[in-house]
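Reopening this one. Same input as before:
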Amino acid sequence: MNRVIILVVVLVLVTALIVWVSGGTTGALGDHGSAALTSNVLILVLLLSSLVLGWRGTASQALRYMFIWIAIGLGLVLAYSYRDDINPLYERVAGEMNPARPQQRNAGEVVLCKAQDGHFYADVDVNGTSIRMLADTGASTIALSVEDAENAGINVDGLDFMYMVSTANGEAAAARVTLDEVRVGSIERKDVKAMVTRGLSTSLLGMTFFSSLSGVAIRSDELVLED
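Same output, byte for byte:
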């Protein structure tokens, strides 16, 4: 089988694949969409032509590689088609690997998995900076360590540490601040009251965030947050 025949076979199969994927919906794309699809197909044809005609291996090897790439293409198409069904599985696996990663289960529902130490942690976006916090419904406010506050763009040197609060390490000085944005997964809050606490090793996600939610519940080994 010479390269010309191989090229014809490849182009026929690719054309059939494109027609099958498009599902005859090119008419719904409009003139602009149809033109874009046509140009993309032509580019693909040129690339395939150069690859086939420049191939120096045997015909059987060419056909084998062709079917491998077609199978990969079909797999990608199927994965994209079922992305809404695959996403919850991905979220659950990712949450098990990183318990602090907020999982989006349903619209307005974010889930945190229990860590090995028995606590719940959350990767929280504070003013656009990701900060890992201990989810503590017993804390009256969000409490940031000095280091995390600086990472979130807060000028710690300009704060007035006039308050004394209780921490796991005893009494500590704290200053009140207002966070522009606090986001856990898809749940976002603006202008959230918080404190920057000296001597705090782990920042706390407290009630100034949790009290704004419609529901907070522990189900098995999961902390469920409802917007």
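So the earlier flakiness isn't reproducible anymore. For the record, The two ends are 63 Å apart (CA to CA).
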